[in-house]
Design brief:
This protein is an alpha/beta fold and 538 residues long. It is built from 19 helices and 18 strands.
Length: 538
């Protein structure tokens, strides 16, 4: 249990939030959401004590332990993987170190013997004899194979370190767990493992994530940080989003009677409660929603960017033909080989691979920015494309302001370009900012605005949700579902893929998999799992 009392965090004149009073209780998982810069990570740091709050206090239940997912991936470079995980349980680790020190003393005294006996008793109480095997189970579940368990952390890749840090946070069944973006750099199988793990976790969890599917799968509550205030709601992200949108629509409909609005909200709660069976947190979710009062559903003040892709012309029957395409990385790694496919009208294709460089290579080739190592591609004569590259840094090597920058990519006056920027939530003096000082999220919104100016009938998107906040991801997602043209994209966002893609092509060094099916069906298929293992085998 975590009790937050009168918490305020302020940096100079900027107040992130003040007088926050919340209680986080055992058995619940709280998904923390908020726009970029609203203070989600700061909130977790204030709870953990890493950041000293301006005012207020944070208290744990009596004798409870708090565990935090570390963001410092170099801190443990001198330790073994196993020791790094064991350090996650600080009490147990301290006992182990003191115990080892005493046993190694050459002049072991009677007092040392008494102290060792005390330590051994505490060690047994904390199930220290099972510590290494428990740590090994966590590591294996997170994709760290046994041959790496006693390697030095400094020898591991960045992605492997992320998984070890996650194992460290989970180790020892902590009473309270703080996770900041735990699914970053995890593959699908590992994310699913983590979902299952947290679904069976009986203590208190606060998790910050931009992964809507993950939040929906594990959260019993939503903590909404909305510039200056923090509100707690029952239900997961989808429930918060849909209910707040419904409440906003009702607030704008002045003619609707109060009784009608009440019935509509009650029906929404019933429908969502029935749908809660999909969640891994089924029992807790149903309990929360059953107790929910419709008065608790409030319109959100959150602003969503106006992402609207329109086509100047309808595409013809010939979209894109790819035949025998091959790409080899600079280090000689084959990214894909003998790739052949034809894009049909209306198809929205997600490209997958164990190696994300494969999708970038493909998109760069079909956009004319990279030479294929073999094979050909041909666009239909009616097709116009708009490309969102993975790396957009070269576009912002300029001291132009936002209006001047956007003006390079379309025709119109300043008022016209300001309207585009306004739709992407750049208002007032913000449109005069220099583009070389923009944040990652602001750059992405600019690139999306640039794409909209093209009015293309085929969109090519390389990991489009990178750097975007949940509001922008939601708006992007909603528009792509309605877009009548073609979409070719890569993404690690489960919900984005599931709701947009109607075809899946997986790129491997030994061929490709091409399926007309939903993503959830694709990842659940044993036959496809076997085929993937075969194609990725050395």
């Amino acid at each position: 249990m975590i009790t937050v009392s009168n918490l305020s965090v302020q940096f100079g004149k900027r107040v992130l939030y003040k007088d926050v009073n919340l209680k986080f209780t055992n058995g619940n998982i709280y998904g923390v959401i908020g726009a970029n810069g609203a203070g989600k990570s700061t909130f977790l740091k204030a709870i953990s004590g890493e950041l000293e709050a301006t005012k207020g206090s944070v208290e744990l239940g009596p004798g409870e332990r708090l565990s935090v997912l570390s963001q410092d991936h170099f801190k443990y470079d001198g330790y073994t993987v196993m020791d790094t995980v064991l350090m996650g349980h600080t009490v147990l680790w301290d006992i182990m170190k003191e115990r080892d020190t005493l046993y190694s003393k050459p002049d072991f005294s009677d007092a040392d013997g008494i102290r060792v006996a005390e330590l051994e008793e505490k060690f047994a109480e904390l199930e220290g004899w099972n510590a290494e095997s428990d740590a090994a189970i966590l590591l294996s579940g997170l994709g760290i194979s046994e041959d790496l368990h006693y390697k030095i952390m400094g020898e591991l890749s960045g992605k492997q370190k992320v998984r070890v840090m996650l194992a460290q946070a989970l180790f020892g069944n902590p009473d309270n767990l703080l996770l900041d973006e735990p699914t970053n750099d995890l593959d699908l199988d590992t994310v699913m493992w983590l979902e299952d793990y947290l679904a069976n976790f009986e203590h208190t969890v606060l998790v910050v994530s931009h992964d809507r599917h993950f939040l929906d799968a594990v959260s019993t509550h939503t903590v909404d940080i909305d510039f200056g205030k923090i509100n707690l709601f029952a239900g997961n992200y989808s429930f918060w989003y849909e209910s707040s949108q419904l409440a906003l629509k009702q607030a704008q409909n002045q003619k609707a009677k109060a009784e009608e609005k009440k019935r509509e909200l009650e029906e929404f709660i019933r429908r969502f409660s029935a749908n809660a069976a999909k969640s891994k947190q089924t029992t807790s979710r149903k309990k929360m929603l059953a107790k929910l009062n419709i008065a608790d559903i409030q319109p959100s003040s959150r602003k969503y960017p106006g992402i609207i892709f329109q086509m100047d012309r309808e595409p013809g029957n010939q979209i894109l033909e790819v035949e025998g395409l091959k790409a080899v990385d600079e280090d000689g790694t084959v990214l894909f080989d003998n790739l052949t496919f034809t894009v049909e009208k209306g198809q929205k294709i997600v490209f997958l691979s164990h190696n994300p460089r494969a999708m970038t290579a493909l998109f760069e080739i079909i956009n004319g920015n990279r030479q294929a190592d073999a094979g050909t591609y041909r666009w239909g004569v009616t097709i116009t494309t708009a490309y969102l590259p993975l790396d957009n840094s070269e576009f912002f090597e300029s001291d132009k302001n936002l209006v001047e920058w956007l003006g390079q990519y379309g025709e119109g006056n300043d008022v016209y370009f300001k309207s585009f920027l306004g739709r992407m939530l750049f208002t007032g003096e913000e449109v005069l900012k220099k583009v070389n000082v923009l944040s990652g999220g602001e750059k992405m919104r600019c690139m999306i605005a640039r794409m909209q100016l093209r009015n293309a009938n085929c969109l090519i998107l390389d990991t489009p949700t990178n750097h975007l906040d949940l509001e922008s991801i939601q708006a992007f997602n909603n528009n792509l579902r309605q877009f009548r043209g073609n979409v070719l994209f890569a993404s690690h966002d489960h919900e984005f893929i599931q709701t947009v893609a109607n075809r899946i092509i997986e790129l491997t060094p030994n061929g490709s998999i091409d399926k007309l099916m939903e993503y959830d069906e694709y990842v659940a298929s044993d036959a496809i799992r076997e085929l993937r293992a075969k194609l990725y085998a050395d």
